[in-house]
Known about the structure:
Layout: H1 10-61, H2 79-84, H3 88-119, H4 126-138, H5 141-151, H6 158-165, H7 179-188, H8 192-202, H9 207-215, H10 220-248, H11 252-257, H12 277-286, H13 291-319
Family: Belongs to the binding-protein-dependent transport system permease family.
Keywords: Cell membrane, Membrane, Transmembrane, Transmembrane helix, Transport
Transmembrane segments: 34-57, 98-119, 131-152, 179-202, 223-246, 291-313
Amino acid sequence: MLSTHVPPERGTNATTVSRHSQVRRRRRIGRSSLRFYFFASPWLLGFLVLTVFPLGYALMISFTNFDGISERLHWVGFNNYLDVFHDTLAWAGLLRTVLYAVITVPCGIAGGLGLALLLNRRMRAVGLFRTIFYLPSVVPVVATAIMFQLMFDRDVGGINAFIELFHGPAISWLIDPTAFLVLIIMVLWGLGGGMIISLAGLQGVPAELLEAARVDGANAWYRFWRIILPMLSPVLFFQVVTNMIYALQTLVQPLLISPGGGAGQNVVAVPSGNQLYMVHVYAEFFYYQRFGYGSALLWVLFALILLITLLIFRSSALWVYYEIDQGGNN
């Protein structure tokens, strides 16, 4: 008898192989995804527990009269947020904070850039000088505050001792109206962090551009204004954003520089010139035990920081230069 067996079509085999390869590919992608989430899980867990949950909890209690002790919460709705608009101390602290940021952020960036320009050259012991200028930025803020308290003390401070050499009067630096000036000087003492960032940016400027401009007769100012500064603008943009966010949240320095060396019990003794917004928030939390209202103050500050950050980003198109534009073209 003749065999009636018909061999399978070639197309059927190809389809089967294709399906098996797709299954293997899906399994391989699935295993890769599992490995990714396994290694990322510590960060994801930390983000959820240490960031998302505290934010949600702070948002919740901002609508209550929580005092930090009692377990009974009374829902007050938007009353805490409405009280912010009638809190003269909060608005005065916010204005001081904005003034503080307007002074420290440009001066800090300009000072760090100036130091970077001075140290971005070949000379003897340049590494030593960079280290010396960078060290103040890594000194703990508590140690810096103690040093400045000793320097600006009215009776035993080195600043007044120097003034007395010229028969000048002793000045009470740590109280109004000079306390705000001491705070500014203390913050600008740590220019080394900005110097390192700017120095890294300067070393990324192509030497060929500078040499070509020098050959064409461009002076130092023209090379800085037309070549170095535009090439450095992304680095400066990064510093503007981060320093502005940091400045608007300043808390520790005003507390520590206040007379007596400020912890929680000294918050009301902070000179009025150093009563920044976050100092007022700290007092509402830990001095007046108004956790609900303090949380509302923090969310208002968050909204302000977000708005200022967005404005900075929108303005970046006017002054930040990128070698590759947003479309990916050179």
